[in-house]
């Protein structure tokens, strides 16, 4: 498979936002990621389900430096950690990847989602030189869907009843953005 032109396991700076790759996090940051990912406001929207044991989290972090198609970043602004953004399933042949995102649930201010979405689009299109960014979101995740629409993502269909929650099955919406759409923002 074709490789990216640059090493994505490095720290990036977008104005006041620092994006630190998971492969370079210290122990305090690794534990904070675990606390955020397991927070009920975040975990309830993750297709992979709820609580992640700390041991499994450390094993996941230990694999980060050898990843070449999944890249995760801890984002910091002037007030502290704002959240996590990810480029998943990067396909360098077709220049496409899937977005991952969650805000820091321990911070209350509005606008963190917009800041993080701007950063992941910048990383995908201006830095990684991708052509298309896709995402999947559970159909009742209204805050996330609204944030994606505000950022310029477009509805591209749905996988019907793809997510199981208790005794029901919920649609998974597909959304996407192309490089031209990002440029026109
Ligand atoms: C997805 C996610 C990052 C979006 O972040 P968010 O904080 O909800 O979104 P924003 O910060 O963009 O917007 C929050 C509110 O602030 C407002 N806002 C956005 N930018 C603003 C700004 N610069 N100044 C003031 N208000 C702003 C928005 O209009 C929105 O208001 P509303 O709630 O009345 O609609 C967040 O919901 C999240 O982490 N969810 C849990 C994990 C998750 O679902 N991940 C996605 C899985 S697909």
Brief digest:
With 185 residues, the chain is an alpha+beta fold. The chain has a domain at 12-134: Gcn5-related N-acetyltransferase (GNAT) (Aminopeptidase).
Note the topology.
Elements: E1 12-14, E2 17-21, H1 27-38, H2 40-43, H3 54-62, E3 71-77, E4 80-91, E5 96-103, H4 112-127, E6 132-138, H5 142-151, E7 154-165, E8 168-178, H6 179-183
Parallel strand pairs: 5-6
Antiparallel strand pairs: 1-2, 2-3, 3-4, 4-5, 6-8, 7-8
Helix pairs in contact: 4-5
This protein binds coenzyme A.
The site of coenzyme A (COA) has 17 residues, from strand 5, helix 4 and helix 5.
Q: How would a crystallographer describe the biggest sheet?
A: 8 strands, mixed
Strand order of the largest sheet: 1-2-3-4-5-6-8-7
Helix-strand pattern, N to C?
A: EEHHHEEEHEHEEH
Query: What is the CATH topology descriptor of one domain?
Result: Aminopeptidase
List how many beta strands DSSP finds: 8
Q: Please, what is the CATH homologous superfamily of one domain?
A: Gcn5-related N-acetyltransferase (GNAT)
Low-confidence stretches: none
The distinct bound ligands, ions and cofactors come out as: coenzyme A
Average residue pLDDT: 94
Helix share bin: 25-40%
* CATH architecture grouping of one domain: 3-Layer(aba) Sandwich
Strand content: 35-45%
Q: What is the first-to-last residue Cα distance?
A: 31 Å
Radius of gyration (CA) equals 16 Å
Tally of contiguous helical segments: 6
Which CATH first-tier class of one domain would you pick? Answer: Alpha Beta
Bulk shape: globular
Helix/strand-derived category reads alpha+beta
